Amino acid sequence: MKGIIEKIEEGGRISAAEALRLYESAGLVELSRLADVVRWRVHPEPVVTYICGRNINYTNVCWVRCRFCNFSCPPGSPDGYVLTKEQIFQKIEELVALGGTELLMQGGLNPQLKLDYFEDLFSSIRERFPTTHLHALSVSEVRYIAHMARLSVKETLARLRDAGLASLPGAGGEILVDRVRGEIAPRKDTADEWLGVMRDAHEIGMRTTATMMYGSVETLAERIEHLQRVRDLQDETGGFTAFIPWSYQPDGTELGGKKTGGYEYLRTVAISRIFLDNVPSIQASWVTQGARIGAISLGYGVNDFGSTMLEENVVSSAGTSYDMPISEIERIIRDAGYEPRRRDTLYSQV
Questions:
Q1: 330-346 burial, b for 16+ CB within 10 Å, e for fewer?
Q2: Secondary structure in 3-state letters for 148-211
Q3: Domain range for residue 305?
Q4: Do residues 237 and 265 make contact, with C-beta atoms less than 8 angstroms apart?
Q5: Is the pTM of this model over 0.85?
Q6: Which residues of the chain have a pLDDT value below 70?
Q7: Are residues 321 and 289 in contact, defined by beta-carbon separation less than 8 angstroms?
Q8: Which CATH number is 208's domain given?
Q9: Domain annotation covers residue 208
Q10: In the sheet that 339-342 helps form, which strands lie side by side, from edge to edge?
Q11: Does 347 fall in a domain?
């Protein structure tokens, strides 16, 4: 442990085996200290950023039926919906009225929505709301759109970009280990397929984020394997702007299980900051953990408080619901000893 700690303090890169040893054995206070060392090395100013954004789930129809998801409905379900353009525009108008810029749009794998639907929708949004940044779709959605259009993923991403898609969220990362993915989402992408879409996005100049949904059926070693695969791709492309670990929400899901708490979250986010030495930002997951743990995480390597999330439907459908206005985000950041600054989706301060 002494050698691992010294390596981190001196700015060295730890291996997966060393990260696992740290994860299993280091105390919470020591993890906080080490993650904070890395945080100040990467971000030497006492600033924590956030963004004013809105999440719009344009449809809840999805045939994949991941075992951890409590949001989607199968095709043909009376509970399924597709928002109209007018409904989507009204939500965006509410965001713009608050000075918001980030539009996070995600849904499901809806067989009725093909490439021309997204090209029309995205170009309409860009024309009507030119100040918004369209941070939209998941890897699974992109792959499905490409499949139905009989195009490569890279060609599909290029067409979506030309229509207005500006960046790609890290949704669907879950755990980048096929054993885990086969158990929690057997119809979904493999780990290599998820990484392949991210690689294609980076190669056409599109920036993305990466996520990790931990606490379902994975081991600690598999969490580290996930981090290793993110770090390896970042070494190759440099296209990830941020990493967001968040805890699995089991209530009402087919998979079931127990909810992990703040202690596990703080350990996980600290290890993420220490290990992902090439990913610029680590984002708080107050949507799943709440304001108190979100504030504490600023001492565990987190430098970004995420989005105002004017609307959130996926996590809340599993029984976890937190809401926070801009004034509260800024108060929490100040009370933690940092200066709050608003940013854009690509992490430039505004």
A1: bebbeebebebebbbbe
A2: HHCCCHHHHHHHHHHHCCCEECCCCCCCCCHHHHHHHCCCCCCHHHHHHHHHHHHHCCCCEEEE
A3: 2-342
A4: no
A5: yes
A6: 309, 311-323
A7: no
A8: 3.20.20.70
A9: yes
A10: 304-307, 47-51, 339-342
A11: no
Assess if residue 193 is contained within a domain: yes
Q: Does 348 reside within a domain?
A: no
Contact 336, 295 (CB under 8 A): yes
Q: Which two tokens stand for residue 177?
A: 């280990």
Rounded CA-CA distance 289/303 in Å is 16
Looking from the CA of 291 toward its CB, the CA atoms found within 13 Å total 15
Task: Provide φ and ψ at 159, rounded to 5°.
Answer: -70, -40
Tokens of 35: 């993650």
Strand (E) or helix (H) holding 23: helix 16-25
**51-109: pLDDT as tens digits:** 999 999 999 999 998 999 888 899 999 999 999 999 999 999 999 998 999 999 999 99
- Conformational region of residue 164, where left means phi above 0, alpha means psi within -120 to 50, and beta covers everything else: left
CA nearest to 92, candidates 55, 43, 143: 55
DSSP code, position 57: -
List 51's β-bridge partners, or say none. 307
